[in-house]
């Protein structure tokens, strides 16, 4: 009888251990790890090139904040400035680069130029936000290839930018979420969804590119 009880006790202890390890321990998941986009490493880039990239980002952030605030005038102003600063990115400096940076950067920068032109002519803020989403993705692709020489950039996403379960993304130089799709003056949510969203990726500066 004692032998049977001992066997039962051993089995119970084994089951309890397995339950703790696979269910309790395994079921508790930590926060989702933030992903860092890996940039393509290339040669040295001039101060002028890095300054042109930062100028583009400054205008992009101004456009983003204009959308956050539902400020039509600011959106119009920074769209035009961004069109000029994208044209001003000194991409031709990389023509002789042997790592493929120049060719890799061609599509995203060409697409970004198309996007910002469409954003300028879009009639409403709603239409501009749709194009802004595409523009943001193309600038992100460009920066993944050619990251700036300073400052962390955060790729942030709203899960309901264009309605339930329809994601919209944007770039920010701050961890704080300021949602350009819902913003401060949404007809339905007012400013209650301003912080709706999360950081999905980061783009780290490429200090090795500085001459």
Automatic annotation (TrEMBL):
It comes from the Bacteria. Residues 57-146 form the DUF3347 domain. This is DUF3347 domain-containing protein. It comes from Terrimonas rubra.
């Amino acid at each position: 009888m004692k032998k049977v009880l001992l066997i039962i006790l051993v089995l119970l202890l084994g089951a309890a251990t397995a339950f703790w390890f696979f269910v309790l321990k395994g079921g508790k998941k930590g926060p989702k790890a933030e992903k860092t986009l890996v940039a393509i490493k290339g040669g040295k880039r001039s101060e002028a090139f890095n300054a042109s990239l930062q100028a583009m980002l400054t205008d992009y952030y101004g456009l983003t904040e204009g959308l956050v605030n539902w400020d039509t005038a600011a959106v119009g102003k920074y769209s035009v400035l961004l069109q000029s600063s994208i044209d001003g990115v000194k991409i031709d400096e990389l023509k002789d680069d042997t790592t493929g940076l120049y060719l890799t950067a061609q599509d995203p920068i060409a697409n970004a130029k198309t996007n910002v032109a469409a954003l300028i002519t879009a009639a409403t803020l709603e239409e501009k936000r749709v194009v802004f989403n595409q523009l943001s993705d193309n600038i992100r692709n460009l920066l993944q290839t050619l990251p700036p020489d300073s400052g962390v950039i955060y790729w942030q996403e709203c899960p309901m930018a264009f309605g339930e379960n329809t994601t919209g993304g944007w770039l920010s130089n701050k961890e704080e979420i300021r949602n350009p799709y819902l913003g401060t003056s949404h007809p339905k949510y007012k400013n209650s969804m301003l912080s709706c969203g999360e950081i999905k990726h980061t783009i780290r500066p490429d200090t090795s590119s500085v001459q």
